[in-house]
Amino acid sequence: MGQLDDRVAVITGGGRGIGRAIARRYAAEGATVVVSSRTAADLDATLAGAGLGHDRGLAVVADAMDRDEARRPVTEALDRFGRVDVLVNNVGGSVGGNPDPFVGNDVAFEQTVVLNLTSAWWTTTAALPSMRDQGGGRIISIGSGASHRTGASVGYTAAKHGLVGFTKELAKSAAPFGINVNLLCPGWTRTSLVDFERIAAARGTTAEAEEARAAAESLQGRILEAEELAGMATLLAGDDGRGITGQVIAVDGGYKV
Predict the structure, then answer these.
(1) Closest Cα partner for 174 from 117, 126, 141, 136?
(2) What would the pLDDT profile of 38-52 be if each residue is shown by its tens digit?
(3) Mean pLDDT (the chain, rounded)
């Protein structure tokens, strides 16, 4: 028996990286898995790698930057499977790079906040009524080292800090209905979003130097693999995580402690 037998989990940004790793671990633990992203091929690869057919897997192509589309993974999960037990708000990233705040780039700032924070509100509010009616659920958002400290763009850091307040306040509101809400924060993690060639080009260094610099920012001196986040995500989604709510939990190799 798996830790997530008979549960339905929705994972946004489930086509690559941390989202894909969590989706595959949840499937291995017995969950029915709904994944969303903008790219159908990535979603199909996630479900195929998890060994999921139509009875336990659903791919939803949706743009998290659009209010209605961001809610579609949840609404389609409810239509197909009748419930949502776990929601993982994994979508994130930077829009427009790292703009100079003294110059100002309204579009980059606003879109980065929408992608990392507002989209979590959209998907979460789509899931909450059904979780309340069924007597419980789990909401896990994916934060960042930038949820605790500086080091990214103003928009990204503001949004990831915002997820801390979002998590704590929502946990308070949702607790009477048996709904747990937590924030899982990676540090440097090897995914397609971490492009050391691009970082090196911006800094005039080499990819090897930038990867070494990133690794040195954690106590373990390494870049984590996406699969290393999946264990904690499973704990928070399963019965053993029943007493954990309103928490900001880092799985980051000791990033900038």
Answers:
(1) 136
(2) 999 999 999 999 999
(3) 95
Measure the CA–CA gap between 23 and 230, rounded to whole angstroms. 8
Measured CA to CA in angstroms, residue 160 lies from 25, 60, 95, 138, 157 at distances of 24, 25, 14, 19, 5
Handedness of CA 16, 89, 61, 33 (dihedral sign): positive
Catalytic residue among 26, 109, 156, 188: 156
| pLDDT value of position 104 | 76
- Whether 156 is catalytic is yes
Phi, then psi, of 20 in degrees rounded to 5: -65, -45
Q: Please state, in angstroms and rounded to a whole number, the distance separating the CA atoms of residues 43 and 60.
A: 8
